[in-house]
Amino acid sequence: MESIYNKTIEELEEYFINKGEKKFKALQVFSWLYEKRVTSYQEMTNIKKDLLKEVEKDFSIDSVAIVNVERDKDVCKYLFKLKDGEHVEAVLMNHDYGNSLCVSSQVGCNMGCKFCESGRRKKVRNLETSEMVLQILAIEKDIGKRISHVVVMGIGEPFDNYENLIKFISIINHPKGIALGSRHITVSTCGIVPKIDAFSHFPLQVNLAISLHAPNNEIRNQIMPINKVYPLEKLIPSIKNYIQKTNRRVTFEYILLKNVNDSDACAHALAHLIRGMNCYVNLIPYNETNNIDFKRTNSIQINRFYDILKKENINVTKRREFGSKISAACGQLRSKKEES
Ligand code: SAH
Hints:
Blueprint: E1 2-3, H1 9-18, H2 24-35, H3 49-58, E2 59-60, E3 65-72, E4 75-81, E5 87-95, E6 98-102, E7 106-107, E8 125-126, H4 129-143, E9 149-152, H5 162-173, E10 185-189, H6 193-199, E11 207-211, H7 217-223, H8 226-229, H9 232-246, E12 250-256, H10 264-274, E13 279-285, H11 299-311, E14 316-318
Parallel strand pairs: 1-2, 6-9, 9-10, 10-11, 11-12, 12-13, 13-14
Antiparallel strand pairs: 3-4, 4-5, 5-6, 7-8
Helix pairs in contact: 1-2, 4-5, 6-9, 10-11
The structure holds S-adenosyl-L-homocysteine (SAH).
S-adenosyl-L-homocysteine (SAH) binds next to strand 10 and strand 12.
C-alpha cells in the first residue's frame, strides 16, 4: 500500500475533493502527521471515523527502521532498513547554527564518480518521497529535537530521482509539514543539465550545490562519467541560466584529489571557468576510502589552492570535516548493510 508520507498537500487535497470532501481535510491530516507526529489514524480525532477508514484503506502510516547508529563527536550516522529490506544511511551533524541532516535519495547510484564509495553499488531503485521524509521523522524522534537544516547529499543523485525529490522538498518545507525554511534546504547534483534547467523554474528558494571537482573536461571526464553526457560547455551555461532565473547563489563543491585536480594551474583554471558567476567554491578535503585509490591533497596545497582562488576574487570556503572515523563523511556512505 502507498505511504501517506508520499503525498504533498496538493495531492491530499485532490484526494479528499475526489471523495466529495472539503479540501481542508488535507491540512488536518498534515498537521496530525507532521505537527503532532501521530502514528495511527485513530489519533486523528477531528476527522470522522468513516472517512479515516477509507484513508486507512488507501494509505499506510509507515516508518523507516533505524537499525544501527554510530556516533563520533558531533556526527551521528544512521543506518535505515527500508520496507523491501534495502538499506540507506543518513548523517546528522551538530553545527553551532543548529543541526543538519544529510539524507539519501536512492539505493545505490548510477553516476559512477570514480572517487565516491556510494557509487560502487549501482542504483537499485529510487527512494520514494516517503522514504526521504521518514529519514527526518525517525531521526527527530530519536534525538527528541527538530532538525534545522537538510542537505540532500547522501547516497544517490537527487536529480536522477527528480519528481520524488520535488515532492520531498514541498512536504518538508510546508508550514504544516516539517516546516523547514527553504533556505535551510540544499540539494547537491553531479550536474544533470536538463534537471538543473527544470529546477530553475522551481518556486521554492532552496540552495543548489554542484559537484564540479574539475576545472576542465579533460580532468572531469576522468573522474565523473556524467561529464561525457553533460560536459562543461553545457553545464556552465545551464548553471548561469539557473542563477539568472532564481537570483540565487550556487555552491560549487570541489574535492581536492592529490595530483589529479589540485595544482596551482587547476586553481587558476577554476577561477577562470566560474568568474563573474554568483557562486562560491566549497573546497572539500578528500576522504580516502579503502577501496578507492585517490589520495587526499596535503594541507599545504589545500591552503595554496584556497589562496589562489581568494587572490582571483572567488568566494571560497573550506569544508569542515565531519565523521570520517565512522565512515560518515562525504562519499563514504553505502547502501549495503554487510559492508558498512
Ligand atoms: N550525487 C550528488 C549528491 C551526493 S553529494 C552529487 O554528486 O552532488 C556528496 C558530495 O560528496 C558530492 O559533492 C561528492 O562529489 C562528494 N564526495 C564523494 N566522495 C567523496 C569523498 N570520498 N570525499 C569527499 N567528498 C566526496
